[in-house]
């Protein structure tokens, strides 16, 4: 794999280039695995890695023990205390696969394997699913733990989240499974779910995910497991590990797993030689475009387990498998113009209008340029010929400019310094990538965007289309969300084509929105960075709008999932007299501004008990607190002689644990606690009540 460049370098040049490549690779690994926001294509990344491998092969003494060629990329990230996942070591290191874009290298792999093995053997050919790796452990037929790859040695415990992935069974069916085994695979997001999620993120002005793979790994690391179930993740499993597994081949192991109800792909095929492998690759090179999920290649594995053992592993890859990767499809087209779109929070997004071009089954006419920084990075000009790729085959993005096509007639785009809609000078806050129109109360595009958001399904759920909002605004009937609730039937009859029935239906829908719960109302207010799940956490934490509006930064940071940026945005929102006035008008209109009456205890299983919680749980702390109060208990913050028990999650606080030990207070773990409130097993008195995991 030595590149001609590597062969021509002096030793000093090679050392310098290797250092440069390592830095580039580490940074891009971080963007890919940790930020879920890669800046270069997989192909370009693999080319950097190939170049480094070639240098290290030519100059083995330049290899460093921590070179990215010696280890797999890490998805472990630095997170604020209390928000991290528990971590566990992998029983068997979680490696990656050697990959190639060149079919002749697959032939080399086949030949090498044949040379070592000698006897007749087969290959299992499989799709290479483009998601994020997961390792599941089943103990006595039950899902025991799910770890991410992490750095290959230690992984993040995402069991709570994985329990919300629909096709992963909590319990195996049938019989004959080993008492304990691991099965590894990929968690991925099908295109349909990815599309839905990104549309929603764009509506909420959250940065969309670049591709389904990033969306899958981001979703798997969500702090709130319940949120995971809304993301539509799926899993496919492709590698079983354990002591003395009773199988002769990899295919037998996966067939057995499938019989136990585990999700295993049915697109696998046993191939005997390179000809059959090439046929399989050729078939799926086209066939994959019709699959409902992303694949980025084919994996070819020696099928016989004993022979896998003979071939063994390098520090990073198995020698018994290789990945053949498909190159992402690209198209070259011309930039006709650039629009600057204003969103509901005032963010200005440049969007390129392109000469329509066919790409991976659809015609691409527009591609987002994200922000000024991205435009500068690409040095894009109007009239340029640009490469367009679909991130994970869905969102078109411009990946580069073909400089050889430049004629000199291209025009450097001028990012506007005023709002293209209302003319207000744009501003950019420190650290922000985007420019904003600060005229939040007077810019028509922002106002209409906010109105559309306010009535949207996940907000107030009022049934009306964008055209209705446009007319209501143009007629001067609605310019603030609170104006909706002053509308009369006569007002509505002024709309084009509206009759009694349409007006009544709209008024009925508005009336029904008065019952929409506080968390949705909070989301509807359209506070920047307060998406649906953040609004829910805030509502659960603060209980009502007065407490939220009175909260200082420290109090806001106490709530689940709230970091600096969100806290500042909430403070900023409520510091505006216009927003306070809006909130008051909506309150007067009868909207829900508190979480209705505290849920009545649905069991008294924890009656009279004062319970202290500490550590990280598989559900949010607010949900744990709800379970305590919902079952008649009281949550208190410090351990004392009155504490009934300390409910300890992963990594409980050492001080609380010590105090509990000193006072002889019982420590209960999450599973025991869940059993206690669901089956009635009580630490002091057995009870036989109803299930109350409401
Ligand atoms: S086998 C010991 N099979 O691709 C390595 N991996 O780029 C076992 N992947 O790390 C991995 N589909 O996360 C295997 N059918 C498949 C796969 C697959 C996707 C992922 C996996 C792997 C990565 C390498």
Q: Can you give a write-up of this model?
A:
The protein is 36% helix and 19% strand. The chain has 694 residues and is of the alpha+beta class. Strands 12, 13, 14, 15, 16 and 17 form a 6-stranded antiparallel beta sheet that branches. It has a 5-stranded mixed beta sheet with strand order 2-11-10-3-9. A hairpin with a 4-residue loop joins strand 12 (330-342) and strand 13. Helix 17 (518-524) packs across helix 18. The protein is globular.
Topology of this protein?
Layout: H1 4-8, H2 11-33, H3 42-58, E1 87-89, E2 99-100, H4 103-117, E3 123-129, E4 132-139, E5 142-148, E6 154-156, H5 159-162, E7 180-188, H6 191-203, H7 212-220, H8 225-229, E8 234-241, H9 250-259, E9 269-271, H10 274-287, E10 295-302, H11 305-311, E11 321-325, E12 330-342, E13 347-359, E14 362-368, H12 372-378, E15 385-391, E16 395-401, E17 435-436, H13 444-455, H14 466-474, H15 489-493, H16 500-512, H17 518-524, H18 532-542, H19 545-550, H20 553-558, H21 564-575, H22 577-588, E18 610-614, H23 621-630, E19 634-635, E20 643-648, H24 654-663, E21 666-669, H25 670-679
Parallel strand pairs: 2-11, 18-19, 18-20, 20-21
Antiparallel strand pairs: 1-6, 3-9, 3-10, 4-5, 4-7, 7-8, 10-11, 12-13, 12-15, 13-14, 13-17, 15-16
Helix pairs in contact: 2-3, 17-18
Residues 95-97, 99, 126, 128-129, 133, 186, 238-239, 299, 318, 321, 323 line the site of 2-(butylsulfanyl)adenosine.
């Amino acid at each position: 794999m030595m590149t001609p460049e590597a062969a021509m370098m002096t030793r000093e040049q090679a050392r310098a280039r290797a250092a440069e490549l390592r830095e580039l690779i580490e940074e891009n690994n971080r963007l890919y695995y940790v930020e879920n926001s890669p800046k270069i294509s997989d192909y370009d990344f693999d080319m950097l890695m190939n170049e480094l491998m070639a240098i290290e092969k030519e100059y083995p003494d330049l290899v460093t023990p921590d070179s990215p060629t010696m280890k797999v990329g890490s998805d472990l990230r630095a997170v604020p205390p209390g928000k991290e996942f528990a971590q566990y070591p992998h029983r068997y290191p979680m490696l990656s696969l050697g990959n190639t874009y060149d079919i002749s290298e697959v032939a080399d792999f086949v030949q090498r394997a044949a040379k070592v093995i000698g006897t007749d053997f087969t290959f299992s050919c499989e799709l290479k699913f483009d998601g994020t790796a997961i390792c599941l452990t089943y103990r006595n037929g039950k899902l025991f733990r799910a770890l991410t790859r992490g750095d290959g040695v230690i992984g993040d415990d995402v069991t709570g989240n994985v329990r919300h992935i629909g096709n992963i069974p909590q319990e195996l069916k049938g019989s004959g499974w080993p008492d304990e085994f691991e099965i590894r695979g990929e968690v991925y997001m099908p295109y349909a779910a990815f599309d839905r999620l990104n549309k929603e993120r764009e509506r909420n002005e959250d940065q969309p995910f670049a591709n389904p793979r990033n969306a899958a790994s981001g979703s798997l690391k969500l702090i709130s497991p319940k949120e995971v179930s809304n993301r539509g993740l799926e899993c496919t499993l492709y590698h079983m590990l354990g002591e003395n597994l009773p199988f002769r081949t990899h295919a037998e192991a996966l067939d057995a797993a499938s019989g136990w109800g585990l999700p295993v792909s049915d697109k696998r095929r046993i191939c005997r030689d390179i000809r059959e492998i090439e046929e399989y690759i050729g078939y799926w090179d086209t066939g994959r475009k019709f699959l409902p999920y992303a694949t980025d290649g084919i994996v070819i594995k020696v099928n016989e387990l004993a022979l896998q053992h003979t071939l063994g592993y390098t520090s990073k890859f198995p020698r018994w498998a290789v990945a053949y990767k498909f190159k992402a499809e690209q198209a070259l087209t011309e930039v006709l113009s650039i629009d600057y779109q204003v969103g509901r929070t005032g963010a200005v997004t440049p969007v390129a209008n392109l000469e329509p071009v066919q790409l991976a089954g659809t015609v691409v006419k527009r591609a987002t340029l994200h922000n000024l920084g991205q435009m500068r990075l690409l040095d894009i000009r109007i009239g340029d010929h640009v490469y367009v790729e679909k991130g994970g085959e869905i969102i078109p993005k411009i990946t580069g400019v073909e400089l050889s096509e430049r004629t000199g007639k291209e025009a450097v785009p001028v990012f506007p310094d005023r709002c293209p809609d209302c003319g207000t000078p744009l501003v950019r806050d420190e650290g922000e990538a985007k420019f904003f129109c600060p005229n939040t109360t007077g810019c028509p595009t922002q106002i209409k965007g906010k109105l559309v958001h306010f009535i949207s399904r996940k907000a107030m759920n009022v049934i009306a289309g964008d055209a209705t909002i446009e007319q209501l605004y143009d007629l001067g009937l609605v310019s603030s969300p609170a104006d909706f609730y002053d509308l009369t039937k006569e007002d509505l009859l002024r709309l084009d084509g509206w009759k009694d029935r349409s007006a009544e239906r709209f008024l009925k829908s508005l009336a029904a929105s008065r019952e929409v719960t506080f968390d949705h109302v909070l989301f509807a207010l359209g506070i920047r960075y307060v998406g649906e799940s953040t609004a829910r956490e805030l509502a659960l934490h603060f209980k009502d709008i007065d407490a939220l509006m009175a909260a200082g930064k420290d109090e806001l940071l106490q709530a689940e999932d709230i970091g600096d940026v969100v806290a500042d945005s909430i403070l900023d929102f409520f510091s505006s007299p216009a927003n306070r006035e809006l909130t008051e008008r909506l309150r007067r209109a009868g909207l829900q501004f508190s979480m209705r009456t505290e849920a009545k205890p649905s069991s008294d299983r924890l009656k009279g008990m004062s319970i202290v919680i500490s550590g990280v749980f598989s559900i949010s702390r607010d949900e744990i607190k709800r379970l305590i109060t919902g079952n008649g208990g009281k949550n208190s913050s410090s351990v004392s002689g009155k504490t009934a028990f300390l409910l300890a999650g992963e990594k409980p606080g050492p001080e609380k644990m010590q105090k509990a030990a000193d006072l002889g207070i019982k420590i209960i773990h999450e599973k025991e606690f869940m059993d206690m409130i669901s089956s009635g097993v009580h630490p002091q008195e057995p009870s036989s009540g109803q299930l109350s995991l409401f």
